[in-house]
Batch of 3 targets.
Target 1
Amino acid sequence: MTDLTLKAAQRELLGKKTRFLRRQGITPTHLFGHGIKSMALQCNTAELKQIITKGGTTRLIDISVETESHPRSAFIREIQKDEISGQLLHVDFYQIKKTEKITANIPIILTGEAPALKSKDNMLEQVLSEIGVECLPDKLPPQIEVNLNHLEETGQSIHVRDVALNKSISIMTDPEQIIVKISRIKAAVEKEEIGEEVLEEVDAEAVQTEIETEVKTVSEEEPKG
């Protein structure tokens, strides 16, 4: 059993007729999976929204179907919403076997504070927002936390290889992928480049002045006639 449980009932209304369900606060859902017969289900919309908020697509859910004595373990595979109103239209569940490994993309959550960000010229770039993993369903983490506390200087970064997970979880994403890095803000870089150009111009003028001074000195020292 998981800490997320959802009640469901078998659904008879299909296709366009499902709009009548939504008006009653019921969302049409669908349950499918490897080696099982798919089922058209329906769930209370308010309860379903709570499950989506708590579990997203990476938390294992026990779906308790009416007329069945044992819940079915599943993940949310797809959530369909109206693009304009945001109304929940349909949810697909994928039933799994707890003895078979699965792959999933787990969201990255940044924690802590990077000392390098105390400088107003630095910024934090998040390159990767999720990491692919493989493990047994009950070992799947809801999120992967990445601590920023040791990012102290410009140019420092955290890679996938730096992430430590339970030994039972295999990371599928390229270990050399950068998750986050400290970079200079564009305005600060441009300011530095302008400063360097000015210094180069000053140095060039100084060299030219020195050459002209030496030429003048030699010319004055030459004997007349």
Note: The first helix runs from residue 19 to 23.
Target 2
Amino acid sequence: MDLKTFINNYSPDLESISENPNFELQVLIAHHLGKSRSWVLAHLDEPLSDEMINNLALDVDRLTRGVPLPYILGKWEFFGHQFFVTPQVLIPRPETEQMVEKALDWITIHPETRWVWDVGTGSGCIAVSLALACPQLKIVATDISISALRVAQKNIYLHHVAERVFLIQTDLLPALANPPDIICANLPYVSSEDLKSLEIAEKEPLIALDGGEDGLAIYRRLLEQLASRATAPHFLLCEIDPYQIYGLDKVLERYFPFSRRQVFLDLSGFERVYTVEFSEMRKQ
């Protein structure tokens, strides 16, 4: 059996669970062969051994049972880099790349920026991407999950940034005296009720998805922690759902009424990245 026949035979099995079954099969084959997807497309007449067919069929079965492709591969791309992923962390998504881009925009305008906190780091994809883009940065990456931090540590060593990215297990903000220049916070923001009807809730870690009754419970606690500190960072970036903008505005108005807020569209045209420039003035 050659590559083209395998794809044609197994593609129908994935049609009910995948928007692009041929793409997933091509990526899976490339992974097993140690080749690129473009190589697979250029060698569709390449024969497969019986052992390879059996191994591929086992992974196709995992796909049909709902295991996400990145977890099968054990890696996924984010911001042009490969990252290890496991079921203990969220799969990096293109929408989140916008947060990295907006952080880099800020750093370009404020080249004196040195310290970033990546709160809720998960796989570490944001922290590592920023470290790779800006050699002058030092980044503290926090997460409440020790399992997630183990994945982040692998990615930090994979990309050789261990001297500039530091992991801390804690609930949101680390107990460090001096505030950073920037905080990136891609925290859980799906409401508990919405999660009940989302397929993702059965596949990716709930601790990284469940944002409480209105989806803003974790962000509310983050801002409460910030407000309790003597000084605030200069810039905060969050990832949210568009319908949460008003609610987050209200929380900012309570704790940081003089802050400047902006919302940026993601690649699909949805309001996704919420940014805050802080003033030291706040309500008492």
Note: The chain has a mean pLDDT of 94.
Target 3
Amino acid sequence: MESVRAEILQSHSTCIAAARIDISAPATQIFDLLADPRCHALFDGSGTIQGSISGPVRLHLGAKFGMAMKIKVPYRITNTVVAFEEGRTITWCHLMKWTWSYELADLGNGQTRVTETFDASNIPWFAEKWLNITGAMKYNPKSIAKTLVRLKAICESN
């Protein structure tokens, strides 16, 4: 049996990491999972999300949601949804100003292409320092790919 992999995309910037995968599920089903912050720990490929601690059941533009996280030490972070197009795009950021985006493209026949992007191109100096300390940009492409593989497994098992 062939192992499932997401395609890590090449970026022209050291501040951007992205990957994509095709999922045999409708975009609406996938988007429903992405728009529910209580589900994020289920498909997180980085192992940093410990759980949802606050926020709405379904995200929307301007929604705030808190997550319990752990990168070396436990902490909590509040994210804000900064882009939202039902069934197609959702993006959030937090204090450090980098963004996590999911873009969904309907390929027809119940197939959806999902692209996840981490973008740290417009962040303050202290956030850049944190990314360097944690080595995030080195690990993000692989973590994003793992996230997409988990998302695919969840969506295709329903």
Note: The chain has a mean pLDDT of 92.
